[in-house]
Design a protein that fits this description.
Cytochrome p450-Terp, domain 2; 16 helices; mainly alpha; single chain; Citrate Synthase, domain 1; 54% helix; globular; binds carboxymethyl coenzyme *A; 2 domains; three-stranded antiparallel β-sheet
Length: 395
């Protein structure tokens, strides 16, 4: 066939392919700073360990999106606006009732988040009030959507948020229909702080690409939710627990790792494009898990996780592969009584704040993303009539 002899034509040398855009700066950002060699993470210049100890999730969200910690008046106003916008329209709830109950909660969340664009479609993205309202709506409603789908798929009606409960306590209440223990609610709030932002990871990049087209913020968040869902990204927290359940006991950890490494399988919850040491969030989440075990009793899977980490250190450590944020978060959520397939939606509840911070930042100096490619296909082919074609190649 014509054209085959000139396929894979050389491209100009100036085009250096960088798969996964590794090391390619595509934006300037003042939101979050990662030191992958030291294992240090800061939001707007504040260390995450200090934020997780002293701040609330909503205070951290304000910091990420507007660049400064709120005054007490600003925080009160922000919290009360969020509290007022937690409810979902009956139309959204009815739409969610039509979702298949066997569907993954991340897919339900992506669809529900996108549906908000139908209700608030004005794209006044240069109007600070529009931006503030969109931020409030998304931060307020995303947890309600996650909790609503959880009850709907069990055949129940979603319950209304409780105005007297703070953000994380209210989420646990909507999910379990019980007022949570204050320690459990505080631990969840601290988890949300730790997951809120992490520079240009895949979902945040997705959010910025979508934002760069000047579409509405609901489409920005929906595209980011879809990207977060994959097992190489936010979906890994669910897979870690599945892996620990498969390993079953600490004495099987080492042989499991040997087999996985031999088969060139990825160990879920290990490795990171940015960190070459243990992820600082993994250390903090491990301490939160221990705090919960001290209060509510131990989880036997924790011993398995520790055995995996111990066995993995000599095998994967020399390649800079250590536990990441997803390795211990599932153990925390499990102890809070949260089902496995809600771990990634909880990651999304938190990361909405980082995505929105990047949405604002992208709009402040926007240029539509339009990278290039290196074409490797065929050239100058001649169209052949159907009866003259000898074979069909399917990709
Ligand atoms: N287990 C075993 N080997 C690994 C792992 C792992 N978890 N991660 C990386 N490697 C190896 C990989 O096989 C490759 O080896 P070689 O050079 O011999 O071919 C080398 O390390 C480089 O791997 P890579 O996949 O090219 O590295 P990356 O920077 O593209 O990947 C990653 C980063 C997070 C996608 C990867 O480490 C991974 O797939 N980890 C497991 C999934 C996971 O835990 N994801 C959560 C990431 S953190 C939170 C988030 O982003 O949501």
């Amino acid at each position: 066939m014509e054209g085959l002899d000139i396929e894979n034509k050389q491209q100009p040398n100036s085009l250096n392919l960088r798969p996964g855009l590794e090391g390619v700066p595509v934006a300037q950002s003042s939101i979050c700073d990662i030191d992958g060699e030291k294992g240090d993470l800061k939001y707007r210049g504040y260390s995450i360990s200090e934020l997780a100890e002293k701040s609330s999730f909503l205070e951290t969200t304000f910091l990420l999106i507007w660049g400064e910690l709120p005054t007490s008046k600003q925080l009160k106003e922000f919290e009360s606006q969020i509290q007022m916008h937690r409810r979902l329209s009956f139309r959204v709830r009815d739409m969610m009732k039509c979702f298949p109950e066997s569907g993954h909660p991340m897919d339900a969340l992506q669809s529900s988040a996108a549906s908000l664009g139908l209700f608030y479609s004005r794209r006044a993205i240069d109007d600070p009030k529009y931006i503030y309202d969109a931020v409030v709506r998304l931060i307020a409603k995303i947890p309600t959507m996650v909790a609503a789908f959880q009850l709907i798929r069990k055949g129940q009606d979603p319950i209304q948020p409780r105005d007297d409960l703070p953000y994380s306590a209210n989420f646990l209440y909507m999910l379990t229909e019980k007022e949570p223990d204050p320690i459990a609610a505080r631990v969840l709030d601290r988890c949300l702080i730790l997951h809120a932002e992490h520079s240009l990871n895949a979902s945040t990049f997705s959010a910025r690409v979508t934002a760069s087209t000047l579409t509405d913020p609901y489409a920005v968040i929906a595209s980011a939710v879809g990207t977060l869902a994959g097992p190489l990204h936010g979906g890994a927290n669910e897979d870690v627990i599945k892996m620990l359940e498969k390993i079953k006991s600490p004495d099987r950890a080492s042989s499991f790792l040997d087999q996985a490494i031999k088969n060139k399988e990825k160990i879920m919850g290990f490795g990171h494009r940015e960190y070459k040491v243990k992820d600082p969030r993994a250390n903090l989440l491990q301490s939160f898990a221990e705090e919960l075990f001290a209060r509510f009793g131990k989880d036997e899977m924790y011993d398995v996780a520790q055995a995996v980490e111990q066995a993995a250190t000599p095998k994967l450590g020399p390649k800079g592969i250590y536990p990441n944020v997803d390795f211990y978060s599932g153990l925390v959520y499990r102890k809070l009584g949260i089902p496995k397939d809600l771990f990634t939606p909880i990651f999304a509840i938190s990361r909405v704040s980082g995505w929105l911070a990047h949405w604002r930042e992208q709009l402040s100096a926007n240029r539509i993303y339009r990278p290039t490619q290196i074409y490797t296909g065929k050239h100058n082919r001649t169209w052949e009539p159907l009866e003259e074609r000898s074979s069909i190649t399917k990709n």
